[in-house]
Amino acid sequence: MKNFIGTYECKIDDKGRLKVPSSLIKQMENFDDKAFVVKRSVFQPCLEVYPMNAWDKLMGKINKLNRFIKKNADFIRMFTAGVKTVELDNAGRLQISKDLTNFASLQKDIVITSAGELFEIWDKDAYEKVISTNETDFASLAEDVMGSFDEE
């Protein structure tokens, strides 16, 4: 499994074009996918960018849900709301649609941060607010999430 690595401060212009840092472009090339999928995050006011193979894997799980159960149909609709495919243009930019830009409140200064097999796009102020948790809170979260993790 391939993973993205790094956090980058970038700019987005008024037309929603995001100049991707060259080191991230090189990582994107390692995924053998020309197209990527951009979607709204479920839990945070940011965007998630998936390589197509990772997106297809995730949608394989979602497509197994019974759509005749209302909560499943509602979840699928909300999960895929605003989903777009994007490709890097010749200038190394991603075009982020207006609806997704508005969802994540992306202004001029943004942060791109790795999140395993995907990366997130944040408004810089929102990102700094989310990661500004104190050490005790993060230590407690780490213990809750990873404390019982078994290497097997």
TrEMBL record:
<dbReference type="InterPro" id="IPR037914">
    <property type="entry name" value="SpoVT-AbrB_sf"/>
</dbReference>
<comment type="subunit">
    <text>Forms oligomers.</text>
</comment>
<dbReference type="InterPro" id="IPR038619">
    <property type="entry name" value="MraZ_sf"/>
</dbReference>
<protein>
    <recommendedName>
        <fullName>Transcriptional regulator MraZ</fullName>
    </recommendedName>
</protein>
<dbReference type="GO" id="GO:0003700">
    <property type="term" value="F:DNA-binding transcription factor activity"/>
</dbReference>
<dbReference type="Pfam" id="PF02381">
    <property type="entry name" value="MraZ"/>
</dbReference>
<dbReference type="InterPro" id="IPR007159">
    <property type="entry name" value="SpoVT-AbrB_dom"/>
</dbReference>
<keyword id="KW-0805">Transcription regulation</keyword>
<keyword id="KW-0238">DNA-binding</keyword>
<comment type="similarity">
    <text>Belongs to the MraZ family.</text>
</comment>
<dbReference type="GO" id="GO:0000976">
    <property type="term" value="F:transcription cis-regulatory region binding"/>
</dbReference>
<dbReference type="GO" id="GO:0009295">
    <property type="term" value="C:nucleoid"/>
</dbReference>
<dbReference type="InterPro" id="IPR003444">
    <property type="entry name" value="MraZ"/>
</dbReference>
<keyword id="KW-0677">Repeat</keyword>
<dbReference type="InterPro" id="IPR035644">
    <property type="entry name" value="MraZ_C"/>
</dbReference>
<dbReference type="InterPro" id="IPR035642">
    <property type="entry name" value="MraZ_N"/>
</dbReference>
<dbReference type="GO" id="GO:0005737">
    <property type="term" value="C:cytoplasm"/>
</dbReference>
<feature type="domain" description="SpoVT-AbrB">
    <location>
        <begin position="7"/>
        <end position="54"/>
    </location>
</feature>
<keyword id="KW-0963">Cytoplasm</keyword>
<dbReference type="InterPro" id="IPR020603">
    <property type="entry name" value="MraZ_dom"/>
</dbReference>
<feature type="domain" description="SpoVT-AbrB">
    <location>
        <begin position="83"/>
        <end position="126"/>
    </location>
</feature>
<dbReference type="GO" id="GO:2000143">
    <property type="term" value="P:negative regulation of DNA-templated transcription initiation"/>
</dbReference>
<keyword id="KW-0804">Transcription</keyword>
